[in-house]
Amino acid sequence: MNTLQALIFDVDGTLADTERDGHRPAFNAAFAEHGLDWHWDEALYGRLLAITGGKERMRHYAEQHAADVAARKDFDDLIKKLHAAKTAHYVRLVEQGGLPLRPGIAGLIGEARRQGLRLAIATTTSPENVDALLRATLGQGAADWFDVIGAGDVVPAKKPAPDIYTWVLDRLGLPAATCLAIEDSENGLRAAQGAGLPCLITRNAYTAGQDFSGALAVVDDLADVGLNGLRRYCC
Ligand code: XBP
Ligand code: MG
After folding, report:
1. Which residues of the chain, if any, have pLDDT below 50?
2. Among 56, 57, 197, residue to substitute to test ligand 1 (most atoms within 8 Å of Cβ)
3. Does one domain contain both 89 and 111?
């Protein structure tokens, strides 16, 4: 039997409910700033979450709903500019304190640190966004609590590809079976499973109806689970 040595956290939807009131308004602000009449409402955004990665999501949307924009000669450049603007808006929203951690997350991280477990992050979102969220919620220097932070374009293929988890595991130097991935979405679960990781799901409003077959457990949040609860689920 393996002993649990590390927790690997997803960020969006897992550490905090960042999508509806963080990423979504930041995308909409970037569209307005660049003169696009695109508006992603809550329901549309929920469907678009199937495409992970902000640049990939905008590209997909344009190809499906705005062929004129997708056909522009400067389309690749436009996606880059939109994404830079979106990231700046998102970081500002996070710094204003509007995106708290989900219940149980701060307690779990504290307990894991006290018990000497290693911590890591495996996310599709951009590194600036992770830094801003950790700073705003856990305090200056909290990023240093994580031995490895795998984020954004460090791997070319985003979740549900396993690449980001494999990248993080390589740097942790631990066998997958001694780590636990904590995710909120089917795409995240498939990525973790592809890297051989046991995975626990904390679902949220956007992911509640997804297929979590193969997860160790599915919970609504981590408030009543704690580290002992996690140990019971795995390793
Ligand atoms: C998160 C994402 C990200 C964010 C946007 O997925 O899909 O694309 O919505 O971030 P996961 P960027 O939680 O499965 O990692 O715009 O920085 O890409
Ligand atoms: Mg997520």
Report:
1. none
2. 57
3. no
Among all ligands shown, which has an atom nearest to the Cα of 130? 1
Instruction: For 80-105, write each residue's pLDDT tens digit.
Output: 999 999 999 999 999 999 999 999 99
Among 79, 95, 111, the domain-final residue is 95
Cα of 73 from ligand 2 centre, angstroms: 33
pTM over 0.90: yes
- Asked if 128 and 198 sit in the same domain, the reply is yes
Does 83 share its domain with 118? no
Tell me how far apart the alpha carbons of residues 158 and 52 are, in angstroms, rounded to a whole number.
7
Q: Which residue do the tokens 């329901």 mark?
A: 43
> 213 and 136 share a domain?
yes
143: domain CATH number is 3.40.50.1000
Catalytic residue numbers read 10, 12
